[in-house]
Amino acid sequence: MQLEIDIEDWPEGDWEALAEHAAAAAGEVAPELANPRFVTSILLTSDARVHELNREWRQRDKPTNVLSFPMLAREDVVHLDPDDGPPEMLGDIALAYETCAQEAKAKGIAVADHTAHLIIHGLLHLAGHNHEISDEEADKMEALEVKALAHLGIGNPYTGTIS
């Protein structure tokens, strides 16, 4: 997967490398995400900008930690031929710095670790996973997140341990 990363209103850091590592880990546990034809844009921005996007596209008048905007149906994601055709836009992800930082502090974890988790979470949404559909789908998505984070040496965000 190719990433197009735009960073605005985030502190200094190697956020691009973190996003690349998180995407690779997501591809390890959800192989459809490793398709080299996919292009995903990741915007690391402010709460104010994510608030605007959430209000405009989700009709929710508040900031949130991560937004995902899939461009393809799950069936199309899974069946896209990796060797034949032009690049395909998988979707867009936007992360809000202030919310990410507050959540990381509340959990007692590094902002970078929480950011990696949220990028993986967003990518799984772009691949068609949806934890809001059912408890079964939520458990499946959570398990994929935990496995991907373990590839990065990051503990289970739901229990605080490395699986």
What do you see in this structure?
Its EC number is 3.1.-.-. The protein is built from 6 helices and 4 strands, in the order E-H-E-H-E-H-E-H-H-H. The protein is α/β, with parallel strands linked by helices and 163 residues long. The protein has one domain (2-151): 3-Layer(aba) Sandwich (Collagenase (Catalytic Domain)), CATH 3.40.390.30. It has a 4-stranded mixed sheet with strand order 1-2-4-3, with helices on both faces. Helix 1 (15-29) links the parallel strand 1 (2-7) and strand 2. Helix 1 (15-29) packs across helix 5 (111-126). The protein is globular and about 45 Å long.
Percent of residues in helices:
40-55%
Taking the alpha carbons of the first and last residues, their distance comes to 25 Å
For the largest beta-sheet, the strand count, sense and barrel status come to:
4 strands, mixed
How much of the sequence lies in strands comes to 15-25%
- Strand order, main sheet: write it out: 1-2-4-3
The coarse silhouette is: globular
* Topology pattern, helix = H, strand = E: EHEHEHEHHH
CATH class: Alpha Beta
The average pLDDT score comes to 94
Distinct helical segment count:
6
Within CATH, the superfamily carries the name Metalloproteases ("zincins"), catalytic domain
CATH fold name: Collagenase (Catalytic Domain)
Taking Cα atoms only, what radius of gyration do you get, to the nearest Å? 15 Å
The assigned CATH architecture is 3-Layer(aba) Sandwich
Say how many strands there are: 4
Regarding quaternary structure, what we see is single chain
Protein name: Endoribonuclease YbeY
Enzyme class: hydrolase
GO molecular function: metalloendopeptidase activity; RNA endonuclease activity; zinc ion binding
Family: Belongs to the endoribonuclease YbeY family.
